[in-house]
Amino acid sequence: MKKLMTSQDLARDARFKRVPMQARALDRRLTEKQRDAILGKEGRKPRNQFSPEHPDAPDRARAMMHGIFVGEIQALEGAGRTCWDFEVGTGENEVPFALKLDMARQCWDEARHCEISVKLSDHMGTEIGEFGESAFLFEAACNPDPILRLAGVNRALEGLAIDVFNTMKEFGDKAGDPVLEFCEDWMLADEVTHVKMGSDWLRRGTENDPARRERALEFQRIVDKLFSGGGARGEEESSPIKLARRFRELAGFDKTEIDEIANLSKEALEEAKRAMAGAAKAYGS
Amino acid sequence: MATVNVTPQEFNFVSYDAAVVERIAEKLVRDVGLGDATVDIEIDEKTPLGRQRIESVDDPVKLFVEGGAFEDPTEPRHLTERGTADVLGRLLFRVADRRSGRFDDAPADTDMSLQESVAWDAYCMGRLERLGYDVRKPRRQYHFRTRHGFNDVADAVFERLWSADELTWADVAAACAETEAIRQPA
């Protein structure tokens, strides 16, 4: 069986449609919020897109949960590949057997999350494949260094999942949707465990190798910044996805690390504004 | 014979075809009973957002649509015919309702509560489904539950609105009052 599979090799049935990152990156259109930010307009109170009072909130929640669903499939595939891609041993490209056991446990969790997500989609009136699939989670799980892989997937992306699940749990609570609220709460508990696994293996796997630890943390920073949604994750009232500090602490992040993630999101927002300013000039707004 | 004018005719930010939008809208105008109305559709292709509004219910009917409303969620910047019919069908049914005399006392769309707006949508989309369009009822039911409550009363009211014909604004308002009474008991 092949080792170190790429995201192009992932098996999907005809319902799923892959949306390459380039398709989104080449989109020159601006949201109103981006346009206002670029033009420096003030006076309009920003609204949280996941507040039940927002007219688009139900459809945004549906799209978000579909994104989570395909992310769960990829997390299952990624953890499964980590069990397979590396032999047991003490070399840089080998892993302790206990790490494989953790990944096997994560597979079990992710499989359950897939089933929960399918039923949640039904509940929210969403069809499987209604929205496009980005393969970014699995792409982070293609790193050939197991410690970097866990830093990128378990700490960065599963960390993002903590923020998203917490945001959607609050949306379910405010919208009076007990099914969404409880599904998110239960999956959130598992995500905290997955992030903690990433934090533990990062520490244990690099105890005597500070250079590797720094490489892993740098990879995590890159993934964190790339997938902060152009600054969509943050601590502002209008941030669609809230940084879940308390759950991140439970998952092994210290305050400095959480502050750094918040700052990375701010940086990503500023970079998105600068990039969009170029697009705004192009059509003279 | 209905006349539909789409602006712009050529798109630079998205791969939309004005002729496709015109064809879909012309059929809808006939189907919802607007006869030989003239409909002007302005599309703002510069935004991925999907808000829409009716700017005039009198001839020519004027609709404004942000480009994201017609976008295929599985293929960025490409139009989905199903989604386009979904959006335009809802708007045109609202136009037809306002022109029928049965919705004369309805507030302006901008003054309507989310509950009222979603209840009227359920009434519009149910009729669109019976005309043979793929409107994805479960999605509309989730919208309705989010605004009217996740309970049996809200579900029953949704079914009533969905399967109804020839309602008045008073009927829609009464449906909203019914779910409100359950959400906020006295």
Describe this structure in words.
The complex is a heterodimer of chains A (285) and B (186). Chain A contains 10 helices and 4 strands. In chain A, the strands form 2 sheets. In chain A, strands 1-2 form a two-stranded parallel sheet. A two-stranded parallel ribbon of chain A has the order 3-4. Chain A is globular and about 55 Å long. Chain B has a 4-stranded mixed sheet, with helices on one face. In chain B, helix 1 links the parallel strand 1 and strand 2. In chain B, helix 1 crosses helix 2. Chain B is globular and about 55 Å long. Chain B starts with a strand and ends with a helix. In chain B, 40% of the residues are buried. Classes of the chains: A mainly alpha (285), B alpha/beta (186). Chains A and B meet through helix 3 of A and strand 6 and helix 4 of B.
What secondary-structure arrangement, pairings included, does this model have?
The complex is a heterodimer of chains A (about 280) and B (about 190).
Chain A (H helix, E strand, L loop, with lengths): L20 H5 L6 H8 L17 H29 L1 E2 L5 E2 L1 H27 L12 H5 L5 H30 L2 H28 L4 H17 L6 E2 L6 E2 L2 H6 L4 H28 L3
Parallel strand pairs in A: 1-2, 3-4
Helix pairs in contact in A: 2-10, 3-4, 3-6, 4-7, 6-7, 6-8, 8-10
Chain B lengths: L2 E5 L10 H14 L6 E7 L7 E5 L4 E6 L4 E2 L2 E5 L1 H20 L13 H17 L6 H12 L3 H11 L6 H15 L3
Parallel strand pairs in B: 1-2, 2-4
Antiparallel strand pairs in B: 3-4, 5-6
Q: TL;DR?
A:
Chain A has helices spanning 21-25, 32-39, 57-85, 97-123, 136-140, 146-175, 178-205, 210-226, 245-250, 255-282; strands at residues 87-88, 94-95, 233-234, 241-242. Chain A is an all-alpha fold and 285 residues long. Chain A has a two-stranded parallel sheet with strand order 1-2. A two-stranded parallel sheet of chain A has the order 3-4.
